[in-house]
Design brief:
heterodimer; A: alpha+beta; five-stranded mixed sheet; globular; B: Ubiquitin-like (UB roll); Fumarate Reductase Iron-sulfur Protein, Chain B, domain 2; 2 domains; two-stranded antiparallel sheet; 13% strand
Chain lengths: 659, 252
């Protein structure tokens, strides 16, 4: 049997996995990264508009700091986020941007002096400070009080991924490409690595590791209309779920991005609206101010997507032969700006729509974009349920984003979580728990079990087609578990997904090509993806409230009294047809920012009984410390620095604060 | 309302496309390279990504190809499209004839059908050319970042936009003759790091990496790379400039 031994096995070669690998490697661990594709082709490369970090270098970013980024993030999450994790994140994000700058990311820089920008459809002249000349600049994004999104034109993820990937090459970390982890090796208490399928030869190997980190990204491909890459099938989360002991959290929290080109579903960045682009309807009317007078096009993504769908339902959608859509108008930004700062958008419009966005409007409609849910971890990235298993990035529910993620916070999360979780993995390896006594019989059994699964599918005479089941699942998810949900549709969706899960055991193949037969790969994956789809749909059916991206038209209010809690989905018995759901409470009594109105969207939440008391307590502390500096106030409200690795605890320098 | 479709005439009959794929499965000892034709009905806005997936879903589930982002960003799907290297995901069938011939990129190790191992070659080239910032400076993550002129950052990004798709290598005359030639992708990376003040390496250091016939002096200036680059990188000027700089070092 082919067995490969390592200290740390990182599953996934996107930004989160690469950065975690670098952290563990720096601490002397032997690390191997597995990746479905060459790492520079990971979906991280598709992050266009930028990464949030409160550097505060620009005129419109002046006065920004961790406190404001924290509040924006928690409001964005509709109070679903873990506030300690949000604090760790906003504190580390400036360090991550600066580390990436040192590694070669060509961040766009501040040009001192006057410059013309478009704000709320008006041309405005901003004057950038002399002292900031050459420092990292930022653009506006949705749901933020300051211009905080650091960027590299609209190829931010690409530039970040190349710099971090090149760093792993510099450190000599091997990446085993075209490898797919197909199950975790575990005994119900500890994880010992993974069984891995070579996607060229089709052979199974065992990777035995003291620590295993899943960083496989999101599961957008369970939806028909998605901005996600075709590799975002959620298999990393699915193999964690299959252990029966590791829960997936908040799977019903699925983000829909307002501006995917219609009908292809390819993303055009939120930076289009951040830089001044507008949404228009069939009459050319700019409709967002009618719904959201304060943030307009720049409310959070869940709110904008919902308003867009409602506007289409009210009969105001434009239409082409593929169906109804709305328009994104960036013509007012001018050709020079589009050629410089939105060039990927320009290329996408040229190649996929045959239009010039400097002259014509872009047809857009919301599409699935991001999975807030994932493998439940603690603040250090350790997965619940199995010792030695970690997760980070979109695959994890670290729980930075709650029920809605802010634009620019995910690509930031990848590197920030990588920095924190990489250290935690190294810490774990240094403890007695990090030592391992693994049974060769266990490794062999795990491999044989997977071998049998693949052989069963390959030799089955079943009549079902993997691609038909896949398409049906994707259609159900987009039609019935989308932006606007209700109990009737969700019940139908759960029932049909259950029947698809049964049918998926009857898949027969039409081809038997030697090597990694792509039909066999699809047949194996669709069984896993159906379980994820059931976690999403069943979780959404049970959650009888609306929070962030989870909107129930039959329960339109956010209900803190009943639902200020995180969903945990377990699949304990392989024969069960829906996940077992458990819930964990978010504790209002320790929140730095108790639940309230987000500043956009509906204002009708049902209050949690502890909220008023905690709010009074927070106000008292703030009044008592009126003279103290903001760090001391924060420390009294909700200490978090002890959760960070020591070298990430220092204060972040800013122009204003150091001046 | 604006029109998003080049072909507006709804009454125009749907075309039948004949997509010929050069097939071979190295994992199968019995496999012989051959052209296989698939017929499909063209759909509005159809890309080669959509067409190939439809063929795999409805006609031949064993067909191998690589797509990831399907948005022209990740560089996975480069192939020969009617003989010319290009990104299949963003190629619209309406821009091609009714018979379309697809073949894997030459030069790279074949995995099967249209799938080639560009990743292995690119990693090897990165290791060989050391395509990362070489700096002895310690970064204080708590401190303000070092400033950089805005134009310089943009100039670096201009070269950083390479997506390692392999089209330039497939379109390169030298690469067909010299297996170890680093190609436009490699030379562009050197140009990128040479421009970056955060990288401590000198022209002498870069000369050690590319100052020979497998590097910048191997280029015959046929510039197929420049013509086929899907990101329209300024390969012609970068290679010429780099060659002048390296020649000065070589002659010194």
């Amino acid at each position: 049997m082919d067995v490969i031994h390592t200290d740390v096995l990182v599953i996934g070669g996107g930004l989160a996995g690469l950065r975690a690998a670098l952290g563990a490697r720096k601490r002397g661990q032997k690390v191997i990264i597995l990746s479905l594709v060459p790492p520079k082709r990971s979906h991280s490369a598709a992050a266009q508009g930028g990464m949030q970090a409160s550097l505060g270098n620009t005129a419109k970013g002046a006065g920004d700091n961790e406190d404001i980024h924290f509040e924006d993030t928690v409001r964005g999450s509709d109070w679903g986020a873990d506030q300690e994790v949000a604090r760790m994140f906003v504190h580390t994000a400036p360090k991550a941007v600066r580390e990436l700058a040192a590694w070669g990311v060509p961040w766009n820089r501040v040009q001192a002096g006057p410059r013309d920008v478009i704000i709320d459809s008006q041309r405005v002249t901003l004057t950038e400070p002399e002292a900031a000349h050459g420092l990292i600049t930022a653009r506006d994004f949705g749901g933020t009080k300051k211009w905080r999104t650091c960027y590299v034109s609209d190829g931010t993820g690409h530039a970040m991924l190349y710099a971090v990937s090149d760093r792993t090459i510099a450190e000599g970390i091997p990446v085993h490409e075209r490898m797919e982890a197909v199950s975790l090796i575990h005994d119900g208490e500890r994880c010992y690595g993974a069984i891995v399928r070579n996607l060229i030869s089709g052979k199974l190997l065992a990777y035995v590791a003291r620590a295993t980190c899943i960083a496989t990204g999101g599961f957008g491909r369970i939806y028909q209309s998605t901005t996600n890459a075709v590799i975002n099938e959620g298999i990393g989360a699915a193999i964690a779920l299959d252990t029966g002991v590791v829960p997936l959290a908040n799977m019903e929290a699925v983000q829909f991005h307002p501006t995917a080109i219609f009908p292809a579903g390819i993303l055009v960045t939120e930076g289009c609206r951040g830089d001044g682009g507008l949404l228009r309807d069939v009459d050319g009317h700019r409709f967002m101010p009618d719904y959201e007078p304060e943030k307009k096009e720049l409310a959070s993504r869940d709110v904008v997507s919902r308003r867009m769908e409602a506007h289409i339902r009210s009969g105001k959608g434009a239409s082409n032969r593929f169906g109804e859509h709305l328009w994104l108008d960036i013509t007012l930004l001018g050709e020079a700006h589009i050629n410089g700062k939105l060039r990927e958008v320009k290329e996408i419009c040229q190649h996929f729509l045959g239009i010039d966005p400097a002259k014509q409007w872009i047809p857009v409609r919301p599409a699935q974009h991001y999975s807030m849910g994932g493998i439940r971890t603690d603040a250090h990235g350790a997965a619940r349920g199995l010792s030695g298993l970690f997760a980070c990035g979109e695959a994890a529910c670290w729980d930075l984003h709650g029920f809605n993620r802010l634009g620019g916070n995910s690509v930031a999360e990848t590197v920030v979580a990588g920095m924190i979780v990489g250290e935690a993995i190294a810490d774990f390896c240094a403890t007695p728990e990090g030592d391992m006594h693994v049974s060769t019989a266990l490794v062999r059994d795990c491999r044989e079990q997977e071998n049998a699964r693949f052989a069963d599918i390959a030799t089955s005479r079943g009549q079902e087609s993997a691609s038909v089941l896949m398409q049906r699942m994707q259609a159900i998810m987009s039609e019935k578990v989308g932006i606007v949900r209700n109990g009737v549709d969700l019940t139908v969706a759960v029932d049909e997904l259950k029947s698809l899960l049964l049918r998926s055991r009857q898949i027969g193949l039409r081809s038997s090509a030697p090597g990694a037969n792509p039909e066999l790969t699809t047949a194996w994956r669709v069984q896993k993806m159906l379980k994820l789809a059931l976690c999403v749909a069943y979780g959404a059916l049970q959650r009888s409230e609306s929070r962030g991206a989870h909107f129930r038209e039959d329960y339109p209010r956010r209900d803190d009294a009943q639902w200020l809690k995180r969903t945990l989905a377990f699949w304990r018995d392989p024969e069960q047809r829906v996940p077992t759901l458990e819930y964990e409470n978010l504790d209002v009594r320790h929140m730095e920012l108790p639940p309230g109105w987000r500043g956009y969207g509906a204002r009708d939440a049902i209050e949690h009984p502890d909220t008023a008391r905690r709010q009074a307590e927070v106000e008292q502390i703030r009044a008592r410390l009126a003279e103290a500096d903001r760090h001391a106030v924060q420390q009294s409200l909700m200490p978090f620095r002890h959760l960070l690795p020591t070298h990430l605890r220092g204060p972040n320098a800013r122009l204003e604060e150091t001046a | 309302m604006i029109s998003i479709l080049r072909r507006k005439n709804d009454t125009q009959p749907t075309r039948r496309l004949c997509i010929q794929v050069l097939r071979h499965n190295p994992a199968d000892a019995a496999s012989v390279p051959h052209l296989q034709a698939f017929e499909i009905a063209e759909a509005e806005g159809m890309t080669l990504f959509i067409a190939l997936n439809e063929i795999r879903a409805t006609q031949d589930p064993s067909l191998q190809f690589d797509f990831v982002c399907r948005a022209g960003i990740c560089g996975s799907c480069a192939m020969l499209i009617d003989g010319r290297p290009g990104l299949a995901c963003r190629t619209l069938t309406r821009d091609l004839g009714t018979t379309i011939t697809l073949a894997p990129l030459p030069f790279f190790e074949l995995i099967g059908d249209l799938s080639v191992n560009t990743g292995k070659w690119m990693r090897g080239t990165s290791e060989r050319l050391q395509t990362w910032i070489h700096s002895s400076a310690q970064t204080d993550l708590d401190a303000l970042e070092a400033p950089m002129e805005p134009e310089l950052a943009e100039a670096i990004y201009e070269l950083d936009r390479c997506i390692e798709c392999g089209c330039c290598i497939a379109g390169c005359g030298t690469a067909q003759m010299r297996e170890k030639f680093v190609g436009a992708v490699g030379l562009n990376k050197i140009a990128r790091f040479r421009l970056d003040p955060r990288d401590d390496r000198s022209n002498d250091d870069f000369y050690e990496l590319i100052g020979d016939d497998d590097g910048v002096f191997g280029c015959m200036s046929l510039l197929g790379c420049h013509d086929v680059c899907p990101k329209q990188l300024p390969l012609q000027t970068q290679i010429a400039y780099l060659r002048r700089k390296m020649a000065v070092i070589g002659l010194a």
